[in-house]
Amino acid sequence: MSLDLVLLLVAVAGLALSAPLIAHITAVPALAIAFWRNAMAVSVLTPVALLRHRAALRAMNRRAVLLSVAAGALLALHFGVWLPSLGMTSVASSTALVTTTPIWTMILLRLRGRRQPAVAWAGTALAFLGVVILTGVDLSSSPRALAGDGLALAGGMAAAGYVLLGAEVRRTVATVPYTLVCYATTTVALLAACLISGASLGPYDGGAWTQLVLLTVTAQLLGHSLINRVVKSLGPSVTSTAILLETPGAALIAALWLGQLPPAASYPALAVILAGLALVIVAERAERGERRPARASRSA
């Protein structure tokens, strides 16, 4: 599990790079950015899947394919509602509301009949508190801002469904086949959204394309793809909670890369989120330990 935790931190670092990068891709509409990062990822994964995972692709049963398509649709919904929310409400409100993902993950797990220990709930609440410490509470009463808040909240819900469906598919399907079907679905859905909304898909200058490629490599191939890799072993609760590290991570990366002074709350917020994540990891390990003897007794 230690290797997967390292990969999870690499994934979060990749995701944390997305905000500073997107802030620089001013010539590309938000929906187009989401489309191209997925389309480029599909172009990279397709030859890998066909050359090295063709048998695994063929072995995917109807249920696995449908769940992968559903996960891709939820990922497209996450991008499609969250990115526009950034222009409707404050960045602080949008960030805080979209990072409610682990809370919705815990609720969905409970609805599926999986009871989460009190330590896991406490860790999730503590980690989310860390995000609130960094972003603050900045909810507005204007109709446009409230609509943006609603979109950001919907983005957090969609992300929770995406993580949970990915965890379910990954029980029987390898990372590359699942990720390819998921991203391909996301790409098609976002292409439709771009065409309907009139978002320009090009042409762009060389700098914009370079930034889109960098975004694809870091946030998509390293970020989301490694999330898909580790969710099988670490579980959806740990994975979705760790994604909260993206918020302070982006602030620190912006400080190192762009020379922007990070908010004073970045460091305590990072410590609080890490403490919450540690509690969720402890709870997940304890729960897995309890399930193993139960399986062993049934098999005996």
From TrEMBL:
<feature type="transmembrane region" description="Helical">
    <location>
        <begin position="264"/>
        <end position="283"/>
    </location>
</feature>
<keyword id="KW-0472">Membrane</keyword>
<feature type="transmembrane region" description="Helical">
    <location>
        <begin position="91"/>
        <end position="111"/>
    </location>
</feature>
<comment type="similarity">
    <text>Belongs to the EamA transporter family.</text>
</comment>
<feature type="transmembrane region" description="Helical">
    <location>
        <begin position="33"/>
        <end position="52"/>
    </location>
</feature>
<feature type="transmembrane region" description="Helical">
    <location>
        <begin position="64"/>
        <end position="85"/>
    </location>
</feature>
<feature type="domain" description="EamA">
    <location>
        <begin position="147"/>
        <end position="281"/>
    </location>
</feature>
<dbReference type="InterPro" id="IPR000620">
    <property type="entry name" value="EamA_dom"/>
</dbReference>
<feature type="transmembrane region" description="Helical">
    <location>
        <begin position="239"/>
        <end position="258"/>
    </location>
</feature>
<feature type="transmembrane region" description="Helical">
    <location>
        <begin position="177"/>
        <end position="202"/>
    </location>
</feature>
<dbReference type="Pfam" id="PF00892">
    <property type="entry name" value="EamA"/>
</dbReference>
<protein>
    <submittedName>
        <fullName>DMT family transporter</fullName>
    </submittedName>
</protein>
<feature type="domain" description="EamA">
    <location>
        <begin position="6"/>
        <end position="135"/>
    </location>
</feature>
<keyword id="KW-1133">Transmembrane helix</keyword>
<feature type="transmembrane region" description="Helical">
    <location>
        <begin position="118"/>
        <end position="139"/>
    </location>
</feature>
<keyword id="KW-0812">Transmembrane</keyword>
<dbReference type="InterPro" id="IPR037185">
    <property type="entry name" value="EmrE-like"/>
</dbReference>
<dbReference type="GO" id="GO:0016020">
    <property type="term" value="C:membrane"/>
</dbReference>
<feature type="transmembrane region" description="Helical">
    <location>
        <begin position="208"/>
        <end position="227"/>
    </location>
</feature>
<feature type="transmembrane region" description="Helical">
    <location>
        <begin position="145"/>
        <end position="165"/>
    </location>
</feature>
